[in-house]
Amino acid sequence: MEEIDLEQQEPLPVDRDGKTFRPGADRPDGEREVGCCEKFQESVSRWMLPEDARSKYLERTNCCPPPIFIILISIAELSVFVYYAVWKPQKQWVTLDEGIWNSPHTYQPEKRQEAWRFISYMFVHAGVEHIVGNLLLQLLLGIPLELVHKGFEVGMVYMAGVLAGSLCSSIFDPHSALVGASGGVYALIGGYFMNAVVNFREMIPLLGVFRILVIVILVGTDFGFAFYRRFAAEESGLKVSFVAHFGGILAGMSIGYVFFSAYNQKLLKDPRFWLCIVAYVIFVLFAVLFNIFLSPAS
């Protein structure tokens, strides 16, 4: 019977403590099989973070909790749209109709004393293109952002954009109504855009050019639809403002940029954070006083 030379056999795969690795499961350092969640998170880190922050993110990250804020807000917006499209009596629901115009959620200048409308308008959309465009943008961008920065930061930026959008509309387009979540969506876009521009070299330059071009094309397309809704509706008397886009993107480029560029940093010690917060509060106070004392809307 042939003798077996133990010294010529392959060594058993063991770790530093002498434990045997299970085939296909545990592997020595550097050879561990990467799961789908980890691969996804690695891709997210390349799109969302500069190089010096990726390793820290990958050390801490997991898929729990899921991006709950952006998913819940999207479900709520879709539910309200379906309600007005299906259950409320409408002549048609491809574009804005009387059911949406008379909604208690729509921002209307003559009813601006109902303060909740400055926020609730985000749940009502002007048609299929409007709701689909907003949901696609906020899910594609909001889910990766929330995986990196968590729900509180994304929620703060989103809601800051929603409020800034309605307040800007009430000042610069005071006779127009307002529907849609574009203010919040544009706040996410503005924050991510600033982060991509400022950290251009650290976020893979070739991908940086691509992501900036994609943002410009998407924003330009959505602005085009917003202009159309604003001026094409004049014949029916239902003028829907597009100024919320500007308010949202400005909120994102200030507050959003501070939140999204400060991964693994204490915001309360960042002077940029306080500068943006103070500026935002001053703007809100000015807009409130304008609506009370100076607005030309009836």
TrEMBL record:
Q: Which residues cross the membrane?
A: 68-87, 118-143, 178-197, 209-228, 240-260, 272-294
Instruction: Output a single Gene Ontology CC term carried by this record.
Output: membrane
Coiled-coil-forming residues are none
Main localization (coarse) = membrane
Identify the catalytic residues.
182, 245
Entry annotated with the keyword Membrane: yes
Q: Where is this region: Disordered?
A: 1-32
Q: Which GO terms describe its biological process?
A: proteolysis
Where does the source fall among the domains of life? Eukaryota
Give compartment(s).
Membrane
InterPro entries assigned:
Peptidase_S54_rhomboid_dom, Peptidase_S54_rhomboid_met, Rhomboid-like_sf, Rhomboid_IM_Serine_Proteases
What EC number(s) would the UniProt record show?
3.4.21.105
The record's top EC class is: hydrolase
**Which keywords does this chain's UniProt record carry?**
Hydrolase, Membrane, Protease, Serine protease, Transmembrane, Transmembrane helix
What GO molecular function annotation could you give as one example from this UniProt entry? serine-type endopeptidase activity
Record's catalysed reaction(s): Cleaves type-1 transmembrane domains using a catalytic dyad composed of serine and histidine that are contributed by different transmembrane domains
Q: How does it sit in the membrane?
A: Multi-pass membrane protein
Task: Give me the stretches of Basic and acidic residues compositional bias.
Answer: 13-32
State whether keyword Cytoplasm applies: no
Annotated Peptidase S54 rhomboid domain ranges read 113-261
Pfam families, alphabetized: Rhomboid (PF01694)
Instruction: Provide the function of this protein.
Output: Involved in regulated intramembrane proteolysis and the subsequent release of functional polypeptides from their membrane anchors. Known substrate: EFNB3.
Concerning its family, UniProt says: Belongs to the peptidase S54 family.
Q: What is this protein's name? A: Rhomboid-related protein 2
From which source organism is this entry? Takifugu rubripes
Source gene?
Answer: rhbdl2
